[in-house]
Each structure stands twice: as C-alpha cells, then as structure tokens.
Amino acid sequence: MNRISSPHASRPGLVPLDGGRRPGPPSAAPALVVVAHGSRDPRALRTIRALLDRVRELRPGLPVHLGHIELNAPLLPDTLAALGAFGAHGGAAAVCVPLLLGRGHHVKRDIPAMAAAAPARTRVAAALGPHPLLAEILHDRLAEAGWHAPADAADRRSRAVVLAAAGSRDPESAADTGRTARLLAARLGVPVVPAYASAAAPTVADAVRALAARGRHRVAVASYFTAPGRFATECAEAAPWIVSAPLGTHPAMARLVLHRYDQALATPDTQSEPELASA
Prior knowledge:
alpha/beta; 4-stranded parallel sheet
C-alpha cells in the first residue's frame, strides 16, 4: 500500500518561500502533481495551466503535472497512473499538492484515496490555505480592483470586506477560511467576513446585508477562488462595490505551491492522513 503523508502543523518554516531549486540532483526529485478541482468554465483550465508554467519557471528541472478531481482531463488517477507506468524502478515518486484553500472532503478523503490507489509511491501535501501568502495575494487583487487605504476614521468605519469562498460542510474548512479572513483583516485594517457560494452560511448577499446593518456601506468582495468559475462569477454578481479577481496566476501562488511541495518532502513519511500544514 502506498504511504501518504503531509506536513505537520508543528513544523513551520521548513523551507524558504522563494520557490528556488533545492539541493540535490533534479532527476531525484519526486514529481509535483498539482491537484485542481476541475470546472466547466474553460477559463479555469487556462488559468491553472498558466499557473503550472509559473511553477516550472521557478523550479527548472522539476517534473510538474496536473490532475483534476473531476470535470476536466487529465483526472488525478490518470496522471498518477502515467507516472507509475513510465517512472523508473517500478513507479516514480510523486507529491500531490491540492490547489484547494482549506481542509474539506476533497483534501481529507478524495485525494488521499486516489493517491493510495496509484501505482506510484505518492505523498499528499497540505492544502494551500490558510497561509499569509494568500492574504498577500488577496490584498493585491483588491488593490487591482480599486481598493485603497481608508482616508480617515470615518471612511474606515464605513468599509468592510466579504471573503467569498466556495464553502464546505466540514467545520475545519470554515475554520481555515476564517483564519484567512483574519490575516486579511490585519492587512486591511477593516472587518473581513467569510461568506460562501455553497454548503455553508452566510452567502455573500447575506454577509453584505449584515454589514450594511452595522453601518458598513462600502463593502468589497475578495474572491477566494483559485481560478474563474461558476462560484466566483456568482459571488461577484452579489458585490455591491468593488470585487477582486480570483487568485489565479499571482506569482505568490506558484511560490506557495512549491512551499507545500517542499514541506511534504521535509516531513517523515509516517502519516496516514493529511493534516493542515503550518503557515
């Protein structure tokens, strides 16, 4: 049976976040398999492929592959099967990095199950979030959309941000989104309220109404999605003021993918289920 591991929460700062090449011959590096959810929106696949190109630029010589949980090819089992079929010594070792923003069923169950069934010896890294780099990206995306620092105390009291996420029934997923909201609030100096496209409450529209009832009438929506898609579009339509673009191909996204990959390799291969890595 394949052994699946992921970073310990007690091992922060194992590797730098510049994404640069690590010691050792490139040929010895396990393949990096970026695991995307999949989407019927063609913009999503284009965005993910462009992000993988950024990862390759940061780490020349590292084999970088794509696998989807559903909806798009290649599916993750097919990607892992190809690595097993063509790898040296009975199957190339691989590290799956979920392109997902918190703990939920896909991260805790679906991806580990697919990895366990693969012919290649496979590790599973932690989800991308929460992490301070994601707050940095969200801040940058809001600035691109027109956000600027409040002019004075009255302006600050009128503002807030809704962090629009996909949503999950798993309480740990909501906890992870909440942590990202707090990281972003610390950067912006205004309240940041999580809201969800599905499976959890509140919705973006409900969060906006609740903030307005508290006197926060200038509410921006921060799109906490890795790529364009139905959920991101629906949340953007509920924005009363500015709305940021998804995280997409921001340079820090590629650095974070490599950080999670390196964390997984730096952790002893003794875990049976993935845990959230420390920021």
